Structure formats: C-alpha cells, structure tokens
Amino acid sequence: MKRTVIGGDIGGTHARFAIVDEAKNIISTEKIRIRHTGSAQDFLEQIVSALEKVLNTARARDCDVQAIGLGIAGKVDSERGIVIFSPNIPEARNLTVAEKICSRVNMRVFIDNDANAFGRGEVWAGDGALFKDWLGITLGTGVGGCLVLSGKVWTGEEGIGFAAEIGHTTVYPGGLQCLCGKLGCLEAYASEGGIIRMIQRQNIFPEKQVSTSRQLYELALTGDERALELFKIAGKALGVAIANAFTLLGIRKAIIGGGVSRAWVFMEPATKDALREHMSMLDLDEIILKTSTLGDTAALLGAAKLALDGLAGTHPRK
Amino acid sequence: MKRTVIGGDIGGTHARFAIVDEAKNIISTEKIRIRHTGSAQDFLEQIVSALEKVLNTARARDCDVQAIGLGIAGKVDSERGIVIFSPNIPEARNLTVAEKICSRVNMRVFIDNDANAFGRGEVWAGDGALFKDWLGITLGTGVGGCLVLSGKVWTGEEGIGFAAEIGHTTVYPGGLQCLCGKLGCLEAYASEGGIIRMIQRQNIFPEKQVSTSRQLYELALTGDERALELFKIAGKALGVAIANAFTLLGIRKAIIGGGVSRAWVFMEPATKDALREHMSMLDLDEIILKTSTLGDTAALLGAAKLALDGLAGTHPRK
Asked: Which domains does chain B carry?
C-alpha cells in the first residue's frame, strides 16, 4: 500500500480534500459545499462525512492514509488544534477541530490557517522553494497572507493564532469599510468580496450583474474601462501593502495566488507604480513578484505537507 | 585583566562608544561629534581615533578588549561588514567599515544597523529579554526599527542590508514628504526631524524657536496645545504603523525608545486610539507597549553584545 496523507482546504463556502503521496502527487480530490446552520456539530459532521468518503476512496485506491492536514480560513491555534475565530465559519469559534475530527476518523489531524497552508504548498511544490524569504498573498473572497522566513512558514507569536494577515493591514486610513469592521484594509480593495462590494455600492455596472472576480476579469479582457479601473485600484492598494511589508521585513519577493490573481496582468502595472511610490529601501528592479503556478492546489498540497510534517514531528512550530 | 568589548553607536552627528564587560557593566564611555567632509577616509579617521582613545582608556583600566561592535545608522550588510548606504553618513556608501577599522586597530570588528543594535541591547540587558517576539521602534532624528522573532534579531533576507524599517512604511499615502523622498512615511510624522519640519513648514511657533523634540516636550509639559497636538499626530501615525506591523507579523509587543519617546505620555493615548481603529486581529488589552528602560545605553550595550556574539561565532546571521 502507498503511504499517503489527506490535505484539506476549508473555506467559508466550500471544503476541498485531496489524497496526496510523499512525492507530491495528488491521487484523488473531493469538494463539498458547506451549509452553515450555526451549529459547530453540523459543521464538523459535514467535514467528517467528506473525510470518510475520501478515506473510502483511499482504500479503494490502495492508499494507506497516515494523517490529515487541514488549512482553515480564520484565526487558528495550530499547536493546540483549535479554530479561535473564523469570520466565514462563525460556528467554529473556539472549536477543538483537530481533536474532534481525530476522535471520529481515528487518525492524527493537524490544522493551520489556510494562507499558511498556501505558503507551505508553495515551499513544498511550487515557486516558494526557490526563495528563502517571501511573502505570500492570496486574493480570494478575502485577502490571506503567509510569510516564509528563512525557509519556514512564520506562524506568529506562540498561541496568537494569526500571522501575515496582510489583508487587514491598513493601506488607506479612513478608507473603505472592510468586513472586519475597520476602514481602509487591503481586503476592502483587492479581494473578490471587496471589489464586488465596490461595484454594488457605486452601481458601477447598472446594465448587468457582475458578482464574481471572474466575470470582472472577462469584462477587462474585452477592454471595459470600468473593469480595468477596478483592477487598477486593487493593484495599487496591493502595491502599498507589499511595499510596507517589504520595508518592515527586509524582504523583496512575493508570490500572489487566489482567484483574483488571474487578473494579475491588469493589476501589475498599478502594483508596480505603488511600489515605486512607496518603497525607499528597494528599487523596483530588486523586487520579484510572481503569481502562483500551483493555483488551486497550493493550499491542498500545503495541508498535505502539514500532515507529513506532523507525522515527522516537525509540526507545528517554527 | 578583565575581558571586555567595545560597543559603538554611530549616528549622523555623533558617535558614542563604551567599554562593556560580559556582565553587561559599562566601564567607560566616550562621545565624539562627527565632521562630514564628504571623504570616507576622514570619516574613518575620526572613528579610528576615537577607538584608539577608548582602547587607551581600557588599558589604563586593566580591561582586555577582545572585539569591537558598531551599530551604524543606515543600510548595513552585517555579514560582509559593509555600510551599503546611510542617509546621514553619505560618505560611508559601500564602505568596508569592519575590514578597514580592523586593519587599523588590529582587532575583530562587527557592524550592524543601529536599530538592530538597540534590539540586541534590549534583549541582552533590557525588557526585550521578557519577550520572545517583539517590535522595537526608535524615535530619534529619524525612526528606526528592529524585529525580534523567536528571541533573535531578524536581519532580513541575506545580504539585503535592512530590516524592520518601520520608519519608512507608509502610514498616509500621499501624505507628508519624508527625507527618503517618499510621501507619508511614519518618519515624517513621528521622528524629531519630521516633527521639527512640520513646525517650520507651518510656522507653528511664530513667537519662539522650537528646534528639538526636548523643547517641544517641555512646552507640552506646560500644557501648550500646539505641542500636545504635534505629539498627538505623531502618536496616531505610530499607532497606524504598529497596527500594520502587528497584523502582518502576528505579534503584539513593542518597545519604544529614542529621544522623542520621552514624550510618550503625550503620544500614548493617540497611539492606542489608532491601534483600536486599525487592528482587527487583536484587542487593545492583548497589546503591550513599553518604553525602553535602558534609554541611550540600549544601542551601546547591543553593539557590545554584537561583538561578544561575534567572538562566540554566533554572529551575524539568524
């Protein structure tokens, strides 16, 4: 039997799972839609039931699953296996996810923030391996971030439950309202949710419904000036946030992922303009900005690597 | 003979030196004013001549000096011992300071950025020892910063020559002009230089000359509303920058030093307001902000520790 682990990526609307072997091969995937009833028990049942299905698949494929790693959108205490708080999975607040799932599927479970899983995946199987020190940014429903310092995913002060939350750094004090309750966060400008809220608030497309960043990207491809302007605003905000992160950390490389990053071609010039405007410690030609080549699978592979690290006893701390 | 090292703090206008023993005692200090002729040779001569004086003092005091550590204001490649660029010591650009001084005084020389020396000093002899992960901010002529992560001073990507330059993170895009050439840097609001430039530009004290942060502090003590407002502006900008740093790093502790921090009592309420306004990942009561208890000596002790680490072979990298 083949030695494998399961990697999972649990967001607010969907959860995805993959059986992954030590050679980074994805053997099988599974995706479910999450129903939110407000009950932690209901949330766990959906995850456990999906995992049981994946474990059945594994047996059928002659795979020996040794552990489970889960990247979860939210503030996660990786060491204790607890979701502290997740804006998009509110029923999971203070939930001992690792222990509860472990007791149901009888297998070791390791959890981390989903953007950290993205970082781990990039280091293991993507361009992250090329760099020792870099910032990862996922432009999805929200904006997630990860920091890789000296080759390791930085998880913040012990027990604090978050790190690299670049989406909630302030780019424009007093600016647009973010879902987190503050004004001017990067997420309000450069996430799918933030961009769609800008569109709705200002009724930017009165003649049609634009409710996803993919639709907006397709409009930009047709040369629609409004779509291009929105990606420019997003790109500029991103440049301010990256400039601050590079200046603060003494790093100069970033990998950008998430659905909105498919429109990178429309954001990049504005991001670079903002970097030039806001960064005194580095010249633009010293900087490397790359979009993720792993795409959707970065977080799944990273969650799998989390499980492998857990088995090897190198999880969870730096 | 007592085993000692020399720690030095080299700024734009002054250089200070101390003979320090392994028990963190400061045995003797020396301060010189630096004349800038534009010649690297002249700059080095002044440092070497001061060091020779300190070495004479050491011999007279029966101290065996084993190495020299220097904190230098600017972008420093600690590993190669080179000052890459210093806005306040322009003649030192690309100067192989460590090697050149070493060949003159015949002793091992280690160099680092001055704010990193502050951090090292706080870890060795100050409150920095209480924390594993923290941000240091020096509010002096400019604004310097250091980052201590997992108990070690973070020096950025190998060879990049800077880290923790919080003074040049943007707090207000499009805001006040900073000496670095960019707009809206923290340094333009919260350094002595930035505050004095605000005073001059707006002629805030037409009836008297206010040219130091100490004078401004003394005015604030008398209840002068203009002085209080300036410290409030500085405190608020500082809060925005700290909020962004904490959010980006997953840390929650800061130690604030430098001359302007003597007015901390007038800045603190605004800093806390800004933290409350801009930080969604932490509540205010989870945060620890302290002013340095070592004061002026933090950077000297840190430079001495740099020398001791160098002797022990643990310098310069993380």
From this structure: 2-119+296-312 (3.30.420.40), 131-291 (3.30.420.40)
